[in-house]
Design goal:
Blueprint lengths: L1 E9 L5 H17 L3 E7 L2 E8 L1 H12 L4 E11 L11 E4 L6 H8 L7 H18 L1
Parallel strand pairs: 2-5
Antiparallel strand pairs: 1-3, 1-4, 2-3
GO molecular function, one term: FAD binding
Pfam family, one: BLUF
Protein name: Blue light sensor protein
Length: 135
């Protein structure tokens, strides 16, 4: 199993309905592939975490690259995972203020460096807490 984090730019003028369509289709399709994760959006950015069987996650990411609702997708982090952080969500969704992307921007700036696995995991667990709190 792996966990993959990427960031991308939302298409100009993307609507809330389009974002909801992304979430609904992800929830429907991810269950069949045993993929779980979260989509965070706001300020013209998307950030998504996918976790699941390596080949399924990589196939999903390649498919995501062709989606015209975003551009400039960049993998920020990819790692093996022993357990799921987003096990309860085939695709959770959080709308976020752009300032809350600050830590993700730091990961992006440091994407060519080695990032401490516990720092990455801590950030993912914070997203999971936010999902639980939103219910």
């Amino acid at each position: 199993m792996i966990r993959l984090l990427y960031i991308s730019h939302a298409a100009p003028m993307i609507s809330d309905e389009q974002v909801q369509d992304i979430l609904l289709s992800s929830r429907r399709n991810n269950s069949a592939s045993s993929i779980t994760g979260i989509l965070i959006h706001g300020g013209g950015l998307f950030m998504q975490v996918l976790e699941g069987p390596e080949q399924d996650v990589l196939r999903k990411y390649v498919k995501i690259l062709d989606d015209p609702r975003h551009s400039d997708a960049q993998i920020l982090y990819i790692s093996p995972a022993n357990d799921r952080i987003f096990e309860k969500w085939s695709m959770g969704g959080i709308e976020s203020d752009p300032l809350q992307f600050q830590y993700i921007s730091e990961l992006r700036a440091r994407r060519l460096q080695v990032i401490e696995p516990n720092k990455f995991t801590e950030t993912m667990r914070e997203f999971a807490r936010r999902l639980r709190d939103a219910k």
